[in-house]
Specification:
Blueprint: E1 9-18, E2 35-39, E3 50-51, H1 64-69, E4 84-90, H2 116-121, H3 128-131, E5 135-147, E6 150-154, E7 161-167, H4 183-195, E8 232-234, E9 237-238, E10 252-253, E11 261-263, E12 266-269, E13 272-278, E14 281-292, E15 301-309, E16 320-321, E17 324-329, E18 342-343, E19 346-360, H5 371-379, E20 383-386, E21 391-393, H6 396-407, H7 414-417, H8 436-440, H9 454-470, H10 482-488, E22 494-499, E23 509-513, E24 516-520, H11 530-541, E25 553-555, E26 562-564, E27 566-570, E28 578-583, H12 614-621, H13 625-628, H14 635-638, E29 654-660, E30 667-671, E31 682-688, E32 692-696, E33 699-705, E34 718-720, E35 726-731, E36 735-740, E37 744-752, E38 755-763
Parallel strand pairs: 1-17, 4-19, 19-20, 19-21, 19-22, 22-24, 27-30, 28-33
Antiparallel strand pairs: 1-3, 1-5, 2-4, 5-6, 5-14, 7-12, 7-15, 8-14, 9-10, 11-12, 13-14, 15-18, 15-19, 16-17, 23-24, 25-26, 27-28, 29-30, 29-31, 31-36, 32-33, 34-37, 35-36, 37-38
Helix pairs in contact: 5-11, 6-9
Length: 764
């Protein structure tokens, strides 16, 4: 009987290793990024060595989605069984005090037109070197020859090449913040549908931040995935590190290079052949060392597909070597069928910012601030809030010294020199720092706290925090001041002052610049809102601007200050007026910065603070907000909520009849019923947005935005279909005076952002 022959096979094995931060040299001039790679919900991978496993394995056909995920050139879908890694980039820079105008009202309603990504690239900042990581990976290729089950390791043959394809998996939809009517989810869902590669459902992936918004992805690219030339670079090591060893030892990384063959979404590298000892024998293996360098855009995610080809670019599994079949296996020795590649888990970009210091003053209790709630706000924007790393109490002596320095030229004289004005003798004998005056609030009684202005409160808080930061242990380079630490240095994050503010000025919080913010202990109806206020002020430090304010004010001629209007609103068909708030869209607010379906409940509003709106979320992720607001981009969707209520068509924008009696200056009536006019009669019209329900100071309220107050050229938003019947002119920049000319009808229209609302006026 003739014995059956068994032909030997050739098998190549791929494994992917994460090397750790120590394998990349930080260079003050070019690269200062700090990052951490970790499994989602698990410990850091810096405990090395760490193999990044293949997530689609086995010879039996798995789930179709898994096959597609691991197939080169396919859609960027996610397999059912996946591993998620967080690439957490430390970004402790905040808006400098010198550039506080970015939050100002220049160019209202749009404010300053400098986006955060553009700011980071400015020549006088050069912050991108601090936030764009170089993440070192190593691919190891081994060759085995022989009969399966009785193979031996042999030298890797020259000519084998490694192909790395960069996939863009589907957006992490589960990160959307819960919100009333799913407003945040809907806004972001609409955004990713509009700008995904297919311009449709982004479940197939290819929905990372596109180039127009300062991302990597080319919208017009017909191929799935990310251009490899933008995120992958070869890196040499001298001497070449020992394979499978994580310790860098005396390894010196060279400069990253563009060595390799780049083509669209993949790159081909020639491995370095390294002789090593394996199983007691010398053998040559192949090593490819590269760095992954994505832009620091939260929520962007990537996947590597790795395979081997020969010198002609043909998949190694399509070849034969000396008549032997060629196979490919992963890190665990599992067969990779021809149509599949070594498929890694998803690498998701996160950002981290530290709360370096929390300073409590005037016996304000640090436990009032719910940091877990604050972390929850930012978590939905792929941000980790760390800290407070240090909590201190402002001593009485420090408080007094700042008051003297700010208000008495640094001289301890007169009333400022009398210690009894700050700490009466004999008060608190058991604790020399305890006293009734200090614990009462930010200003001692002799300074008449009720008379203090916003600017004076800001000046004092700024001085207190600056001195506290200067007292912190110095960083490398001796950075001392908040400015030098957060602007010129790598950044330390936030420094927070929590204070009992007894002035009546600046009642909530203040962004002071250079990492500093002050938050007041709130009382009365506002009690318990300190955590939301903290998240709000931190948002200013991260380049976010205010959303909607509580109400429209009028000038009070008696006091020279402002007074609230009592606004009464009557809907069509209702006999009675109900009290609402008339929300002001330009009083330190920026409607184009916020999804108008949710602006009244955004963390950056002065109302509910339920979650960051969709546009704030994108800004926090490091999208270019200014480009998103371009008229040709997402502006019409951002402002859609100013005109429509997607769940209630009857609750849209209205043109209303405004009635104001000067003898009752604190009240205005708005009616959806516009009366017929007589010739030469004048009436006042306003355009208001949909009715929104929210809470203010814990009280349920209703409000409408005065749309006509937010235009740069308000009269251009109004039109009359027949000016010979009804003409229009502006009144106070917030509405129009309609004048009847002769009998007939005219349609009055208010239009903006591609949306409009109209009302018909009859002249009898």
């Amino acid at each position: 009987m003739q014995k059956a022959m068994s032909l030997h096979t050739v098998r190549y094995q791929i494994s992917l290793h994460y090397l750790g931060e120590g394998y990349v040299r930080r260079d003050e001039q070019r690269y200062r990024c700090r990052f951490e790679l970790k499994e989602d919900g698990a410990e850091s991978l810096e405990s090395l060595p760490h193999v990044i496993p293949n997530v689609v394995s086995g010879t039996e056909p798995p789930d179709p989605a898994a096959v597609e995920a691991a197939m080169p050139g396919s859609e960027s879908v996610n397999p059912p069984a996946d591993t998620v890694y967080r690439l957490v980039i430390t970004d402790n820079h905040t808006l400098p005090e010198v550039d506080a105008g970015l939050l100002g009202n220049t160019g209202s309603p749009n404010g300053d037109r400098t986006s955060r990504p553009v700011y980071y690239r400015k020549s006088n900042r050069r912050w991108m070197r601090d936030v764009r990581p170089l993440v070192p990976f190593r691919i190891i290729i081994r060759r085995f020859d022989g009969v399966p089950g009785n193979e031996e390791r042999v030298d890797l043959d020259a000519g084998v090449r490694v192909v790395i394809e960069i996939k863009d998996p589907a957006e992490e939809k589960g990160m959307h913040a819960e919100s009333d009517r799913n407003a945040v989810k809907n806004c972001l869902g609409d955004f990713f549908r509009k700008y995904s590669r297919s311009g449709n459902d982004p479940s197939g992936g290819d929905d990372n931040c596109p180039e127009p918004f300062a991302g990597h992805r080319t919208i017009s690219d017909p191929s799935p995935g990310i251009n490899a030339g933008k995120v992958v670079r070869k890196i040499p090591y001298v001497p070449s590190p020992t394979p499978d060893t994580a310790l860098p030892g005396g390894i010196r990384p060279g400069r990253v290079s563009t060595e390799g063959i780049y083509a669209s979404n993949h790159v081909t590298f020639d491995p370095e052949l390294i002789q090593t000892m394996e199983d007691g024998s010398k053998v040559k293996i192949g090593v490819v060392d590269y760095v992954f360098s994505p832009l620091p855009i939260g929520g962007d995610n990537y996947r590597f597909l790795i395979r081997l080809v020969d010198g002609s670019g043909r998949d190694i599994r399509e070849t034969r070597i000396d008549g032997a079949a060629v196979g490919l296996t992963d890190d665990r020795g599992e067969i990779l069928p021809l149509l599949r590649a070594y498929c890694t888990g998803r690498f998701v970009i996160w950002r981290r910012i530290d709360v370096r210091l929390m300073l409590a003053a005037n016996r304000a209790c640090p436990e009032d601030i719910d940091w877990e709630k604050i972390r929850g706000f930012y978590r939905h924007a792929f941000m980790e809030i760390s800290g407070p790393l240090e909590i201190r109490e402002l001593p009485l002596t420090g408080w007094r010294q700042s008051i003297i320095d700010v208000f008495n030229g640094g001289e301890s004289s007169g009333e400022y020199g009398d210690l009894d004005n700050f700490r009466p003798a004999g008060a608190g004998p058991e604790d020399v720092n305890y006293n009734d005056i200090y614990s009462q609030g930010l200003f001692p009684s002799f300074m008449n706290p009720a008379s203090r202005t916003n600017q004076e409160v800001e000046n004092l808080c700024s001085d207190i925090l600056t001195k506290a930061v200067q007292a912190l242990p110095p960083l490398k380079g001796g950075y001392a001041t908040p400015e030098s630490r957060n602007v010129d240095g790598e950044g330390e994050g936030f420094y927070m002052l929590y204070v009992k503010n007894n002035t009546g000025a600046a009642p909530g919080g203040m962004w002071l610049g250079d990492g500093r913010l002050a938050v007041s202990k709130l009382t009365g109806a506002l009690s318990g809102m300190e955590s939301g206020m903290t998240a709000h002020e931190m948002g200013h430090g991260l380049f976010l601007r205010n959303s909607i304010s509580p109400g429209l004010k009028r000038l009070d001629p008696d006091t020279g200050g402002s007074a609230d209007f009592l606004v009464r609103y009557r809907k069509a068909g209702d006999p009675d007026f109900e009290v609402i708030r008339l929300l002001h869209p330009t009083r330190n607010t920026y409607p184009e910065d916020h999804d108008q379906h949710f602006s009244h409940k955004c963390v950056m509003a002065d109302l509910d603070r339920q979650a960051f709106c969709g546009i704030c979320s994108l800004g926090l992720r490091f999208y270019d907000r200014i480009r998103i607001q371009d008229k040709g981009q997402y502006l019409s969707r951002i402002m859609e909520g100013s005109f429509v209520d997607v769940e209630n068509p009857d609750n849209g924008a209205k043109i209303v009849h405004a009635l104001y009696d000067p003898s009752a200056p604190d009240e205005i009536k708005l009616s959806e019923v516009i009366p017929a006019m007589a010739a030469n009669q004048e009436i006042y019209l306003m355009a208001v947005g949909p009715e929104r329900e929210y809470s203010f100071a814990g009280t349920p309220e209703k409000g409408r935005v005065n749309l006509g107050a937010s235009g740069k050229d308000p009269i251009s938003d109004w039109s009359s279909s027949n000016t010979g019947i009804v003409s229009l002119k502006m009144a106070g920049g917030i509405g129009v005076i309609a004048t009847a000319k002769r009998p007939g009808t005219a349609t009055i229209k208010f239009s903006r952002y591609g949306k409009s609302v109209a009302a018909v006026i009859t002249v009898a």
